[in-house]
Every structure is written in C-alpha cells, then in structure tokens.
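re: that chain from earlier
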Amino acid sequence: MPVLSSFYGILIYIYREINSKHHMPHFHAKFNEFEGVYDFEGNLIEGNLPKKKAKLVEAWCAIHEDELNASWTAWNESGELIKIEGLR
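^ sequence. v structure.
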C-alpha cells in the first residue's frame, strides 16, 4: 500500500479497487494506532483519528480534491501513483 501523502505524522494511503469493501473512491489516513477511511469530500467512512488530526485530514482533502481524483484514476487504471503534497 503506497503512501500518497504525509504531513504532521499522518500517512495517507490509497489502495487499488480490487475487491474493495468500500466500492467508492477513498483513502486511508493513519496516525500512530489510529486509522480513518475518507471519501474525497473529506467525510469519514469508517474508523477514527484524534479530532485535531481528523481536522487536518479534512482540510488537506478539501485543498486536494481534484488531485485525489486524478491520482485515484491513474492508480486504478494504470497502477501509476501520483503523489500529493502534504500540509505545511
């Protein structure tokens, strides 16, 4: 599972849609032992992150929604990962 982005100790992962249980574009955000699964509008699908980290993930998602869609398409069609800049 490749890292799509990272910032403030949060790692953003994207998976190929082979037998995915979510059946929609999404990413996984991990911070220490916490993990949240988000859609590309920043909505939590499942899991949990500490509140401050969740807000950072939501902000990152809002800034990079178009890039997320482009990366998702490239990753699922050709296996090419387009990395996305983290928050600074």
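The chain has a mean pLDDT of 90.
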